[in-house]
Specification:
Distance between the termini: 66 Å
Number of helices: 9
Helix content: 55-70%
Order of helices and strands: HHEHHHEEHEHHH
């Protein structure tokens, strides 16, 4: 191992030593980040609420079990088409008109599209429409309005004779975002990281002479002695007066000789 490698190891040791000395300050950084991110999530981020309506779309069954099974498979394959229809203007424009009248909704057709999502579980004939808004009651009204409009429109558009709203949307008191706990934990980790960077860099770049060993061991210089700090001019005058007395006494002793 060469000298350069040794110096690098010593530097890393100093870095960890600096972090160890400032561990509580780093933790304070983390606590500050935790509190700051929590306050931002609690007071500056607008909460979002969601409500979901479940819709069942199928053809009427008959007595032939084999035909009924074939029809069920056809219904499952048509689910993607129903999902596309739910996200089109043919459904959302009437929905927008109704929620503007009922709930004084201020959004545009684009914002309504962004607030509505359609989900379908694999091998299921139930389509779930989730609506999101800053007002929980508006979110529920949007979801239920989508269900009503879709029920009327799809019968004429695709000749579907059995459309049922399985579960109506209800207003939720618990917002889906922001996640205060997750955001606060992220804030704590960010604070810890910033504390490590700050005190790590500070300790690594700090070349303040704290002892005589630093001069000889770290800077590889010769220690010529110590000069004590003079706190004030008054102290300096006292030292000067003592020096004058010493010179005077030395002069008198020389004259006597």
């Amino acid at each position: 191992m060469n000298v350069k490698d040794n110096e690098q190891i010593i530097d890393v040791g100093e870095l960890f030593s600096s972090l160890k000395k400032n561990i509580w300050k780093i933790i304070i950084f983390g606590i500050f980040g935790f509190v700051l991110f929590y306050l931002v999530a609690a007071f500056l981020v607008t909460p979002k609420y969601s409500s979901t309506v479940d819709i069942l779309v199928s053809q009427k069954s008959n007595d032939d079990s084999q035909t009924d099974y074939t029809q069920q498979q056809a219904n499952l394959q048509a689910i993607n088409t129903y999902k596309d229809v739910l996200e089109k203007d043919v459904i959302l424009k009437p929905v927008l008109k109704q929620v503007r009248t009922k709930d004084n909704y201020k959004g545009s057709i684009e914002s309504l599209k962004n607030s509505v999502s359609v989900v379908n579980e694999k091998s299921s004939q139930i389509i779930s429409v989730e609506a999101t808004d800053s007002n929980s009651y508006v979110a529920a009204d949007i979801a239920n309005t989508v269900g009503r409009v879709f029920t009327k429109k799809i019968k004429k558009m695709m000749n579907v004779n059995n459309v049922t709203v399985v579960t109506k949307a209800t207003a939720s008191s618990k917002p889906i975002s922001p996640n205060k706990r997750l955001i606060s934990i992220i804030g704590f980790l960010v604070g810890i990281f910033l504390g490590i960077v700050f005190y790590g860099v500070k300790g690594y770049t700090d070349k303040t002479i704290k002892s005589s060993s630093f001069i000889t061991d770290e800077l590889h210089l010769t220690n010529l002695g110590k000069i004590y700090h003079v706190k004030s001019d008054k102290d300096f005058q006292v030292v000067s007066a003592i020096d004058d007395r010493l010179e005077s006494s030395q002069s008198n002793s020389i004259k006597r000789v």
